[in-house]
Amino acid sequence: MSTTLSPAGAVHSSEDATRVAEANTLLSPKFYRTDYAAMDRIDVSPVRAEWDAMMAEYEGDNNHDHFQRTEAFADEVAMLMPRLSPELRQEFIDFLISSVTSEFSGCVLYNEIRKHVSNPDIKALMGFMARDESRHASFINQSLKDFGLGVDLGGLKRTKAYTYFKPKYIFYATYLSEKIGYARYITIFRQLERHPELRFHPIFRWFERWCNDEFRHGESFALIMRANPHLLRGGNTLWIRFFLLAVYATMYVRDHTRPALKQAMGLEPTAYDYAVFNITSEITKQVFPLTLDTDRPAFRAGLDRLFQISQRMAAAKARGGLVGKAQQLGLALAGAGTFAKLYCMPVKRNPLPLQVRMSPAW
Fold first, then answer.
1. Tally of structural domains, the chain
2. Does residue 350 sit within a domain?
3. What is the pLDDT of residues 61-101, one digit of tens each?
4. Which of 113, 199, 296, 328 is the least buried, fewest Cβ under 10 Å from its Cβ?
5. Is residue 219 in some structural domain?
6. Is 144 inside any structural domain?
7. Can you tell me whether residue 219 is helix, strand or coil?
8. Burial of 60 (0-12, 13-18, 19+ CB in 10 A)
9. Alpha helices, DSSP H, located in the chain
10. 184, part of any domain
């Protein structure tokens, strides 16, 4: 999650790529730790039938041969890469670095939970999800190497700062990350399926099955939350609202700071983002008792304001000195105030369906 260039500027080497992945900003993917003992106590027996069906899908591993480079992939890269404009090239590299960091973050988190729990349901689930995320991260990193770059994933695990999240925050944030990841990738895949002439890199051909992995990962957390309904009631609904808004706002700001990437695909960033929000809102009705009213004019104006504040914040950081720091403080307060106003806007309530699981039908 990044600025138009990477958070630390243009990327020219693998060292630059790793440094960008290591950066911790409001818009960059995070690495997490959690309460492993609490994770070990999770009981999924209230959703046992749906859980066992999902685990059978993981065991079937229908993507075991998917995330591999082919000769045709390499030939297409060689043909298309020289056609990328400098701006598109940099934004695409930024996208790949952000994506590999996010995927590897999931791999590290799930693997750490797997190592620290004895609960057979959770241990097996985390092993399967870590497997999937490891494949994704490695596959993306190979595409970075086409640019002579690549993130040192082993080094990243050692040097990236970790944020502690309670298990319920992991559930809300990771569920949303996986589901909005599905919505983002399937929207891009469908666009390029309709307009193959706009496919400027072969990695987009892999997006459908890639995002179906993301969808299934989200299903896992949906089942955990529905098996523990206290996570979806009372004061916890305030946390749900917070994470919904944080994820949507981060995506909106990030996408509007790298417009060349969407424009190259024939997508307009604002229309793309709200299409993704609509898909995500429909999906999250399976587990969350509320959705954000993203069609409300005041909501849209608030996201625009957050983007403008982020642009001014970048300029203030570039300016430096006492004036720049004073501007950053004022802008940080303005951003917090705008976020608070967005948080207090009315939401849409919805009943939870009897059946939890959904199919990736978009």
1. 1
2. no
3. 877 777 778 888 888 888 888 888 989 988 999 889 888 88
4. 296
5. yes
6. yes
7. helix
8. exposed
9. 14-22, 36-40, 48-60, 71-80, 86-116, 120-145, 153-159, 167-194, 207-227, 236-256, 259-264, 269-284, 297-319, 321-343
10. yes
